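Known limitations

Structure tokens in this collection are predictions and should be treated as such. Users comparing against experimental data should check residue numbering before alignment. To illustrate the layout, the record for Apple domain-containing protein is reproduced below. The input appears on top and the generated tokens appear beneath it.
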Amino acid sequence: MDVLGRIFLILTFASCTTASYADTLPTSNRPELSIRATSACPPSYTTKNGLDFVTYCSTDNTFNDAFGPFTVDSMPACMLRCSRFWGTGEGCFGIVFRESDKQCWLKNSTAATTKEHIFTREGYHSALLDPRAAKLMKDGYDQTCPYEDMSAQTLEDEDRKGLGFTTYCGHSIADFDYCPQEFPSCLKNTPFFGFFHASSLKECVEICARQHPLCRAATYNPGLEIGWANCFAKTGWSDDKFITPPKGHGTVHAAIITSIKPVDTECPKESEYTTVGGSRFDIQCGKLNTGTNITSLHTQNLAGCMDACAESDQGCIGVVFDSSLQNGYQNCYLQNTTNIIQDQPSASFAILAGTKTPSSTLTLSSTSKPTSTSTGTVFASTQEGTPNNEKNDKKKSKAWIAGPVIGGLAALALIFGAIFLWRRKRNNKGAAILGDEDSYVHPMHHGPPRELDASSLPNELGAMDPKELKGSTKYAYETGEWPVDSKAMVESEREVERFEMDGVGIERRKEKEKGEVWR
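Generated tokens:
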């Protein structure tokens, strides 16, 4: 077989090698496929906090701007910003996204009311709230305080039964803002730092109860005068921070968590536990597993946590039970992988009998210490954990990236070697030149190909920065931080309009008119 034939075989083998491993993975573990399958303008879209949009591709919607322009990664990212927008008297009702420079405009409630403002325009994509969502945004929910002012209430749903809160009708809580788990950056100092949506004060308190670390209070805007993101979790409160809502905020009600049913802080004396269904667990008191969390829920004791694992259909092999509750009311963490086992006095770890664990444990006595915050004492550690988010999206393993990358590098090495041999056979003098010059003089890119790298994907399409948990959120679920684009709010010619949000001054920037057509 001649040299060219050998090169062809090498290329064929290399293509099979680099593709076969990735092709065996389910689509959900291959974010590049979901991104490629989604055009720049999706046929419809629902944001992560539940706001529905109807899209109009290759269509511009002029005037009636509520905010912008600013830079985002994609049209879905623009729609998510719309859902998070804190307006003055109303929220966001639509968007326009320009592909060429990724500029995003937010629209007010008068957007698209006249046809002369809507026209076909390549490179521009528009979206308006679904009619039902638009009506809800205008009408809001019942603004009556659902409970008597300063009355004590208790959640009765199964997952949060026994959690008590006190209602403060017509009041807001300044400061103590909580970074949403989905977006740890909070987009602070912008009108986009809100995220959660609730249809009642009770639901807002339930959202608060799901957060990690422990959420202490919540404020709720039933009229949606500030926008779709109308529920704000709080890390704490103080008497001087209970305020009357500023003008333009509409009706606001607050609730503070005042009582939590005590959980069992004593670790079982027995080192084994068998559930009703026959699942047997080995118990390790004062330990925690840094494996992957599937989900979290509230239980009163370790036995209830193990029962939940045994009943799970998500491959649960172990649990971590946090008796301190400082890392969240949902203190039982179901896990499907094992990792380094750490010492942690207020935690207990249990694993299905027969499951392999690392041979050694990591003691944190020299690297772990209590850290005082507005929410109390939380665990601080140099050991990383695993992220998650409000939707219980499991962190994807990075092992699937390594296979194609290593295979790809090996295949490229074979190809370069084959070409080198072929040229050497054709021209010995040319081979001598190649021998003097480094064949790899142009450095290869190390790491995953860009289209397989989650950090390069549009933020609001589900990409996550593959970092682990901060030590202070030891059991918590935390997605990677969405980077705030430095161009988003910084331009040379801008007006600054200050307004108050829960007593905190926020800069709201509007771009000056630059003579752009249709704007």
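For this record: The radius of gyration is 27 Å. The first helix runs from residue 3 to 23. Please report discrepancies through the issue tracker.
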